[in-house]
Structures are given as structure tokens and as C-alpha cells.
Amino acid sequence: MVTAVTEPSRRIANRERLIFALDVPDLDAAKSLVSQLGDSVAFYKIGLELATSRHYFELLDWLLRHDKKVFADLKLYDIPATVTAAVRQLARSGATFLTVHADRAVAEAAAQAKGDALKILAVTVLTSVAPSDLAEMGIALSLEELALKRARQAVSAGCDGVIASGLEAAPLRAALGAKALIVTPGIRPAGGAAADQRRVVTPTLAFQAGADHIVVGRPIRDAADPYRAASAIQEEIAGVFG
């Protein structure tokens, strides 16, 4: 059993450790899937696919009315003044998490505008990125070194935590301490297909490495029985934390 390495002031309910990535094309599909998942999921990530629809904030409000938490995964990256204005707007929405890129100026702008309720998470390195991709981008650091550099920079700039692969979660936890949130995407249940994710771990391994939350999409969405798939992950989480 894992002992959570989190601050006492922000104890996390086990059922909120699973964040489901609501990656569907429209409002009706999103509502249908949320209804199907029922009490198996309490926390939803809504990202760019739905942000390019006409119903992003309608869905966000609907989720809140149904007692769900919302992670606005928008990965903001713009000049500081624009990021400040955008985060100030999002802070009024009722979302719990918002993502920005781990650029220091962007992170500082977001942190200054977030208010008390919204938590800013900085994206370190996408889980679809491999070492060869870094070389192609002209980055001479390893994946772990880059993730650590960006994470330290973002947290020192005022971000509440980071988005990072479970493969980097342990060194990040050691470097950032207990206070910073670590949210881990690229999660695949044991035996699950990686698809376009290159750096994946199981739910148990992510939490053992120090993650606070995991983000799971296709293994639940594309399952023959999404409710059962989500419930199985919840059971695995309960087994990790007791």
C-alpha cells in the first residue's frame, strides 16, 4: 500500500485520483459517456477537441451541476498579458485544474491570475515524445532532465504542479517535495495497447512513483464496457492507497 506524499491541507479522495479524459467530438457524445460512467468517475478532463466545438463551457457547467470536478486541459501558451487575461476568465468557471506550457513567463502570468480555487499545472514533456524527438528539436537534454528543468521552473514561478509521465514522476517528486501536484497521463492498464503514447505506465506504477492523479482516456472510452473499465481502475487505486 502506498502512503500518499501530499500536504495534509490537500488530502485527495481516492475516487478523485482518476481523471477521465473526455476526448469526444461534441456535447451529446460527452453527456452520453458521462451518464454511462455514472459514479465510476468523479473528475473529468476536457481538452482541445471539445474546446474547438461550440459547447466547451456549456459542458463544463453541466459537469459541475452534476457534482463532477473539471480539469480544463487547454495548454495555454501566449504572451504573458494574454495568458493572464485567459486565466482570469477560467478562474471564474469553476474548473479545478488548468494547464499551461512550462515557460517561465507563461507560468508566472498564469499563477498571478489564478485566484484561490483554480490550480495551474505546467506541462513538462508530452507523453508522446521520445528521445529522438528531443534530438530533432535541438534539445540536448534527456527526457528526465528536461522534465525536471521545466518542472522546477514552473513551480518556482508559482504553478501548483505539473503534468508529467509516470516514468519521470519519481525524480520529480524527489525534486519538488510533497507540496507540488503531479498529474500523470499516458496511463495504460497492464496489458493495454500504448497506441501513440510512447512513455506509458500502469496506474499502480504511477502512484508508486509519486503521482497524485492519473489521466486515463482511451482504455476507458474505447472499452466494451466503459463503466466496468473505470471501476476496475478505481479498484486498483483503492488497492494502492487502502
Q: What's the helix and strand layout?
A:
Layout: E1 18-21, H1 27-37, E2 43-46, H2 48-51, H3 56-65, E3 69-76, H4 80-91, E4 97-101, H5 104-113, E5 119-123, H6 131-136, H7 143-156, E6 161-163, H8 166-176, E7 181-184, H9 203-208, E8 213-216, H10 218-221, H11 226-241
Parallel strand pairs: 1-2, 1-8, 2-3, 3-4, 4-5, 5-6, 6-7, 7-8
Helix pairs in contact: 4-5, 7-8
Task: List its salient traits.
single chain; 242 residues; alpha/beta; TIM Barrel; 11 helices
Please describe what this structure looks like.
The chain is an alpha/beta fold. The protein has a single domain, classed as Alpha-Beta Barrel (TIM Barrel). Helices cover 43% and strands 15% of the residues. The chain has eleven helices and eight strands. It has helices at residues 27-37, 48-51, 56-65, 80-91, 104-113, 131-136, 143-156, 166-176, 203-208, 218-221, 226-241; strands at residues 18-21, 43-46, 69-76, 97-101, 119-123, 161-163, 181-184, 213-216. Strands 1-2-3-4-5-6-7-8 form an eight-stranded parallel beta barrel, surrounded by six helices. Helix 9 links the parallel strand 7 (181-184) and strand 8. Helix 4 packs parallel to helix 5 and helix 7 (143-156) crosses helix 8. The longest helix is centred in the last third of the chain and has 16 residues, at 226-241.
